[in-house]
Structure formats: structure tokens, C-alpha cells
Amino acid sequence: MVSKPDIVLKNNGQPCISIPALLINFDRKKQFDIITTEVFQEGVGQLWMKDYFDPLNFGLPKKYYVVSGECIRFDYHFQNNIVYSINFESSIRGNDESKNMTQKTWAREFRIFKDNHGNVELWLDSGAKKTNIIKRK
Description:
Layout: E1 2-3, E2 6-9, E3 15-18, E4 31-41, E5 45-51, E6 65-67, E7 84-92, E8 104-114, E9 120-124
Parallel strand pairs: 1-8
Antiparallel strand pairs: 2-3, 4-5, 4-6, 4-7, 7-8, 8-9
């Protein structure tokens, strides 16, 4: 099962992608290891990827973790008016995955839409693929 992360625009116009705090019952400061992050562009393919684990010893603690609601590090500059798909894998920090599987896949499509007047909106999921019809006078 693939879960949807929260995505909002930060003041600098870049997306803040996070594990939704509402999904974490009563423990809003639960820590999550981030295993890998990826950015894809529709029609192009993978643009960027980062692994946060040691492939020779997957059982070691991950190099990067977040709490729910915290922006996940995507070291990629997203441009306006392009449909992106982001993916990441997480697990509950400190969990022994061999005994209790908490690894989760997260994915979502979005577009940062900027119109001719400079207004910026975040379009998510199927809305990311819609076309904007600009009426001319």
C-alpha cells in the first residue's frame, strides 16, 4: 500500500513534503528513518534520488530521520508548471524490521502552478495534470 504525504508550499515557493501528523495517533513526535527519496518528472523519468542507508549493512541505523510534520529533505529545486512525482520510503526509528515491519512507501504527484500574474498555487494528485485555460480578452 502506498501512502500520501502532506505537501504544502513554503515561503520560498518550494514544497514541504512531510509525513502527516494526523496519521500518528497520540505520538506526534514519533521519529521516522528516511530510507530513500526520489523525484520523477512525467514523460522524462527519474531526476534525482538519495539513499540514506548503508547498502552493505541495511540493519544499521539510517543516516537521516524526521518527526511527523517535519519537511523531508529533497535536495532538488522544483520548477513551476512541471508535473512531478515524489517517492520516499520510511520506517519507525529504532524498530527492528525483522520482527515488526513498519517500512512504508509514500508517493504523490504535484505541480507548482504559476499563472501569468505571478500567482502561485500547489496542485496535487490528479489536479497536477490538469491544464489551465487562460481566457484572453
